[in-house]
Amino acid sequence: MMKTPEILALLENGNYQNAKESAKSALLKEPDNALLHYYVAWSYDGLSEETEAISYYEKALEMGLPKDDLADAYIGLASTY
């Protein structure tokens, strides 16, 4: 299983499909990981599947994200709406 820095690297490199699959797989073992929810949302956005991203953004924000990711998550969700 990939760790969050590896998933982040996939996202930053535009490898959204692999990032989505890795983050969703990791969520099976860590369903309470807000960062993983955010990464799934980000990957859906990158794949132009915005509707799928909404629930993941909302869950990540509800659970509480690190300060560094919070603004980007709100921007991602707002642009998705």
Kindly summarize this structure in a few lines.
InterPro entries: TPR-like_helical_dom_sf. The chain is mostly helical and 81 residues long. It contains 5 helices and no strands.
Tell me what the structure shows.
- With 81 residues, the protein is an all-alpha fold.
- The chain has one domain (16-80).
- Helices cover 79% and strands 0% of the residues.
- The termini are far apart.
Count of discrete domains = 1
Ranges where pLDDT stays below 50 over 5 or more residues in a row are none
Could you tell me how far the N terminus lies from the C terminus, measured between alpha carbons in angstroms?
Answer: 31 Å
Choose one word for the global shape. globular
Supply database-style keywords.
mainly alpha; 0% strand; 5 helices; 81 residues; TPR-like_helical_dom_sf
Indicate the topology.
Layout: H1 4-12, H2 16-29, H3 34-46, H4 50-63, H5 67-80
Helix pairs in contact: 1-2, 1-3, 2-3, 3-4, 3-5, 4-5
